[in-house]
Design a protein that fits this description.
Radius of gyration: 20 Å
Helix content: 10-25%
CATH class of the largest domain: Alpha Beta
CATH topology of the largest domain: Nuclear Transport Factor 2, Chain: A
Largest sheet: 7 strands, mixed
Structural class: alpha+beta
CATH architecture of the largest domain: Roll
Order of helices and strands: EHHEEEEEEHHEEEEEEEEE
Length: about 280
């Protein structure tokens, strides 16, 4: 059997040019940082590259195979590289395609995020790599024009990238978990980001952008998810997160976890929902 994959580039793609901070770093610099990252993680886990999969909540045990020759570069956001890994103890033909987000910070390169892009899938007896949906925001740009948006509008991937960066910065300050105080209960939540929902919306009255994000509790079961709303606003030619609010909280109902909404949207405004209407009882 052979391994099949789609859209594998063999050249360095400079998607957006003209930014000085990244030009001092080459493709080789990015791959060197990632090789050291993989070696360090592997050394720390007895010869196995360990990755906590945000989507499933499972811990993947992998063996490094190779980096792809291409490195993508996106203005103001960093570099993006892919590598193939084998699952430890799995079929030798199985492959994971893992994405790495690397960003210049304080004159060095920092690994910001590691995420599964494609996973092994058996198609008619042949192992192929199947892309997960929705794809990470850094792949969405490939289908969009790289220049300025018409009328100064921001692209959906830019809003997602801003949210992702905000979450990562917060998590770096709190031991790897996104920490937020629940405005209803006062509880301090320690969360891991799972995915950013589609679509990203624009609030016409305020000019802000809006997206929902799923999070998993620290140490919680994979299916127990919180839904947080993020408001993103333009500032000084860039974007920043200006508000985060719990939209839906996990409740255990009939043997499964569901997300209970606290408010609903009416036009561009939110209206609180009475808890009595959604009183499912304790888990």
């Amino acid at each position: 059997m052979r391994m099949a994959t789609v859209g594998r580039a063999v050249v360095l793609l400079d998607l957006l040019a003209g930014f000085v901070w990244a030009q001092s770093f080459s493709r080789e610099d990015v791959l060197d940082v990632l090789q050291k990252h993989v070696q360090q993680v592997t050394q720390d886990h007895d010869g196995v590259y360990v990755l906590k999969d945000p989507e499933t909540g499972q811990t993947l045990k992998l063996k490094f195979v190779e980096f792809h020759p291409s490195v993508r570069r996106i203005q103001n956001y960093g570099f993006f590289a892919c590598a193939e890994f084998q699952p430890v103890g799995g079929d030798p033909e199985q492959r994971y395609d893992i994405d790495f987000w690397v960003k210049p910070e304080d004159g060095t390169l920092k690994v910001m995020e590691v995420r599964v892009h494609k996973e092994p899938y058996n198609l008619n007896g042949e192992w192929v790599m199947k892309a997960r949906q929705p794809q990470p925001w850094w792949w969405a740009i490939a289908g969009e024009h790289g220049g300025e948006a018409v009328g100064g509008e921001r692209k959906a991937w830019e809003v997602k990238a801003t949210i992702d960066g905000h979450v990562k910065k917060n998590a770096d300050e709190h031991g790897g978990y996104f920490v937020i105080q629940d405005d209803k209960t006062g509880q301090t939540l320690q969360l891991e980001m799972v995915r950013i929902h589609d679509p990203v919306r624009k609030l016409v009255k305020t000019g802000q952008y809006f997206a929902c994000v799923d999070f998993r509790e620290k140490g919680g079961p994979p299916e127990k998810l919180w839904d947080l709303d993020f408001w993103v606003a333009p500032k000084d030619g860039s974007l920043e997160v200006v508000q985060v609010k719990v939209h839906k909280e996990p409740k255990f109902v009939d043997g499964q976890w569901v997300k209970q909404p606290r408010y609903k949207w009416e036009g561009e405004e939110v209206r609180e929902i009475s808890f009595e209407v959604y009183d499912y009882g304790a888990a």
